[in-house]
Amino acid sequence: MSQTARPLSKKEIRQENERVILEAAEKVFAEAGFGGATMQLIADLAGLPKANLHYYFPTKEALYRQVVQTIFQDWLKAADSFDDAPGPVEGFGAYIDAKLEISRKYPERSKVWASEIMHRAPVIQDYLETTLVEWTDGRMAVIQRWIDEGKMDAIDPRHLLYMLWATTQHYADFGHQIETLNGGVPLSDEQWEAAKDSVKSIILAGIGAKR
């Protein structure tokens, strides 16, 4: 006998509506940028009345900042590997895997971030000057410790991070180019795993990583 699904609670309805709105907002902001996006476009894509968007997010800027915060929280979680890893092989290996998986699953998020930065961060400059600076300083300190312990070559941690960001986010920001060069089809599961292995091999060899 089939069971009737129980009605969603108010909390579950709210969570589902927020998820749908944020997913739609990511796509619209990625394609149109902050200036070109409208709450109506986002509402239409989400399949919700515009009034619902304003209930959860009173302004376009509030919604945009939530999208950006979601992006950055994903990247913060990807970097958790740094804190517990005994060295660069484990730390960078897990970080590259996580960042590439984010690019694979949520390409629009990376595109939103890239567009904002290319326009000199008109909406989230305060976020860059606080959260991003603190995060970067913390990761640089971990990398410097590995250098001091002789577990990798003496490479400027800042530029190494820039290279890691550029490489892993390329698979999202330039996904169409990669797809075109892949015969017009998205990368398969096997190709994504090969990409992870290749990037890890190149980076770890390039920095002289040791266990």
From TrEMBL:
GO terms for molecular function: DNA-binding transcription factor activity; transcription cis-regulatory region binding. It comes from the Bacteria. Residues 38-57 bind DNA. Gene3D superfamilies: Homeodomain-like, Tetracycline Repressor, domain 2. It holds the Pfam family TetR_C_3. Keywords: DNA-binding. SUPFAM superfamilies: Homeodomain-like, Tetracyclin repressor-like, C-terminal domain. PROSITE patterns: HTH_TETR_2 (PS50977). InterPro entries: Homeodomain-like_sf (IPR009057), HTH-type_TetR-like_transc_reg (IPR050109), HTH_TetR (IPR001647), Tet_transcr_reg_TetR-rel_C_sf (IPR036271), Tscrpt_reg_YcdC_C (IPR013573). GO terms for biological process: negative regulation of DNA-templated transcription. Residues 15-75 form the HTH tetR-type domain. This is HTH-type transcriptional regulator RutR. The gene is rutR_2.
